[in-house]
């Protein structure tokens, strides 16, 4: 009997089906818990799902590459989802046109702050060059950050993890920070989420209000563009 | 709806082609987003079904980050060794970035641009 179960597991775990299913179950369990506790931001469904899946992979002695063979189908959708951010952007296009200069200046300030800040803090706390390069693009959305990391000589997979953690933390802490600073303006809140915590912040902002979400999407997209252009230049200056 | 799914993929495809051939360090999907935005601005209207497709993709946006996040398992050793600088950059760095971005944007809005705001849902 146990032999049969083992055989079945060996058969199943080699196919994408199990890993796709497990990922969806983990996320939905996280979502259920999150709703049960009145949308408490500390119970981020993303973080919950990641922890649950890591535990599951450890227990079943599965490597990340095996898991990713199934999960890549979900991961792939990040691309189309990024393209589709054009839709919330277009919805608020008149608003964005009206405030073009403030938005541009805020973006440049935010983008530079995100990069310099992360690198400076990590350096002070004992990070080596590899770690600094890996976390420099941490505020940018995952597919862009991984691309940048690879280009400048960081570790793309570690960048992805740091990006996701930054996103979750930004979404959670963002509300507190913005409330303490008494920033109530939906546009400013959206921009802050988008610049600091990319897609996860944008997902969070979209749940709060459409305006916030649109500005967050804009900030995230523009920050991705800006960081991709600025970061290689900054590195040349540092060296 | 299928037509708009195709349109989104085509924009991404065009984006990938552009980044590959021009070697600009911007990822394909971002260029694809700019292309789609350009198309919408030219047409000057929003097809309902395109909005639906985007709505579905964005409703589950957080889920899409899970596979990359699980990658933590492949980087445990580096994380163990460098958890202090990494945690510092994530926690402190993100708070400062949120504060600076929010403050800069608000400083403009206070002075001149009146923006309608929507109530929270």
Question: How does this structure look, described?
Answer:
- The complex is a heterodimer of chains A (about 240) and B (about 120).
- Chain A is an all-alpha fold.
- Chain A has helices at about 1-15, 15-35, 45-60, 65-75, 80-85, 85-90, 95-100, 100-125, 130-135, 140-150, 155-180, 185-210, 210-239.
- Chain A contains 13 helices and no strands.
- The longest helix of chain A is centred in the last third of the chain and has 29 residues, at about 210-239.
- The mean pLDDT of chain A is about 90.
- Chain B has about 120 residues and is an all-alpha fold.
- Chain B contains 7 helices and no strands.
- In chain B, α1 (about 1-20) crosses α2.
- The model of chain B is unreliable at about 110-120 (pLDDT under 50).
- The interface between A and B is large, with 121 and 77 residues.
Helix content of chain B: over 70%
Q: What is the number of strand segments of chain B?
A: 0
Terminal-residue CA separation of chain A: 62 Å
The largest interface is: A-B, 121 and 77 residues
Q: Are there runs of chain B of 5+ residues with pLDDT below 50, and where? A: 112-121
Order of helices and strands of chain B: HHHHHHH
Rg of chain B, Å, rounded: 20 Å
Helical content of chain A, roughly? over 70%
Average pLDDT across residues of chain A? Answer: 88
Multimer state: heterodimer
Q: How much of the residues of chain B is beta strand, in percent?
A: under 5%
The unreliable regions of chain A are none
Reading the helices and strands of chain A in chain order gives HHHHHHHHHHHHH
Distance between the termini of chain B: 27 Å
Number of helices of chain A: 13
The rough form of chain A would be described as globular
Shape of chain B: extended
Beta-strand content bin of chain A: under 5%
